[in-house]
Design goal:
Length: 156
């Protein structure tokens, strides 16, 4: 089974000071990117995500979500911009989710598959924006922001 790739583009927000600027909050600090923001979302199997996990994290087991940022973040600000901005479109990176793992975790958490998938997507995107969860303090900050986003999504 091949991974399914879904391209998404974030629309401009009314809150932007410049109509060509997308504002997003990374690690509690304001960052600006000129143009549109996009990311790739890969929905895949345990086998494929395990291969990616082994190759890039040296962990030989499947996981629920992996993120591959294209931006190097330094203290909450975008550092090296590289050549990932083309035609005023910033590619934040890739989020890879194991659908079988998401189904199992939804059952474990006693919530819907859609809720688990939303949780994993938001978690992965926050990693693209520079959030980390290696320490308890980082994890608390990330999970707080994650819950804020999920709450906003539920209200729509």
């Amino acid at each position: 089974m091949q991974a399914e790739r879904i391209e998404t583009t974030r629309p401009q927000t009314a809150a932007s000071r410049d109509p060509r600027t997308s504002d997003f909050n990374s690690c509690g600090q304001r960052s600006e990117v000129k143009g549109h923001v996009e990311l790739s979302l890969w929905l895949t199997t345990d086998r494929i995500i395990q291969r990616l996990n082994r190759r890039y994290r040296r962990v030989d087991e499947p996981t629920d979500v992996l993120s591959f940022p294209q931006i190097e973040w330094e203290n909450g600000e975008a550092g090296k911009w590289g050549n990932w901005a083309v035609d005023n479109t910033v590619h934040l990176g890739d989020v890879v989710i194991s659908l079988p793992m998401a189904r199992r975790q939804a059952l474990q958490h006693a919530w819907s598959f859609e809720e688990e998938l939303a949780w994993l997507v938001v978690h992965g995107v926050l990693h693209l924006l520079g959030y980390q969860d290696a320490t308890e303090k980082e994890r608390e900050k990330m999970l707080k922001r994650q819950e804020e986003i999920l709450t906003m999504m539920r209200e729509v």
